């Protein structure tokens, strides 16, 4: 029997834990997780036309223009037709995106994370990521076994270009 459709959104500030919480929701409730930020980073890694346009905005901590993100996200959600239980992370970020999403999908649940700014600055400042898998560490609270190295692959961890203090402050001005 086909799974019953359930469409959920997870919103909240950068560093608010959307990714971490999403992983638990996927594990416990079998959602298909789709992150707007991950989709954009995949386009950048692939060197696509969208990725090349998005790169500069993301590096500066600015929002990527709506026409790029909305087409990308709504287009990729179309590909999830066989996955009726999805959790959309990081989209919409403002009213125009919400209107575009609403025109195509009936959303069942919205989770909106409310995290103090000081906590966010500390979380993002110490974040280190393994680009290929999206695994994320924190230098203090969730350090890798070897400093700067991913536990599973032995590959180097990086600081996301938008995790600099300047970019973080800018990202907080346009929190979801
Ligand atoms: P965070 O929530 O920590 O900012 P994300 O991975 O969700 O991280 O997003 C990283 C960057 O991707 C954002 O700073 C922004 O530049 C871009 N981005 C992600 N989602 C959107 C969106 N819905 N609209 C515009 N830009 C977006």
From TrEMBL:
Domain Adenylate kinase active site lid residue range list: 127-162
Source superkingdom: Eukaryota
Keyword Lipid biosynthesis: no
Keyword annotations: Kinase, Nucleotide-binding, Transferase
Molecular functions per Gene Ontology: AMP kinase activity; ATP binding
Pfam families xrefs: ADK (PF00406), ADK_lid (PF05191)
SUPFAM superfamilies noted in UniProt: P-loop containing nucleoside triphosphate hydrolases
Entry-linked NCBIfam families: adk (TIGR01351)
Protein family: Belongs to the adenylate kinase family.
Protein's UniProt name: Adenylate kinase active site lid domain-containing protein
């Amino acid at each position: 029997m086909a799974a019953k459709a359930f469409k959920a959104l997870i919103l909240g500030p950068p560093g608010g834990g959307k990714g971490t919480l999403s992983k638990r929701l996927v594990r416990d409730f079998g959602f298909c997780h789709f992150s707007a930020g991950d989709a954009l980073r995949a386009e950048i890694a692939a060197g696509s036309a969208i990725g090349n346009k998005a790169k500069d905005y993301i590096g500066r901590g600015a929002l990527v223009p709506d026409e790029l993100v909305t087409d990308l996200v709504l287009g990729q959600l179309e590909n999830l037709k066989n996955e009726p239980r999805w959790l959309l992370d990081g989209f919409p970020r403002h009213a125009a995106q919400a209107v575009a999403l609403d025109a195509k999908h009936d959303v069942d649940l919205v989770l909106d994370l409310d995290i103090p700014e000081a906590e966010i600055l500390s979380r993002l400042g110490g974040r280190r990521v393994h680009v290929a898998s999206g695994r994320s560490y924190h230098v203090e609270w969730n350090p890798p076994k070897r400093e700067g190295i991913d536990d599973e692959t032995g590959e180097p961890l990086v600081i996301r270009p938008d995790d600099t203090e300047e970019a973080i402050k800018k990202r907080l001005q346009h929190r979801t």
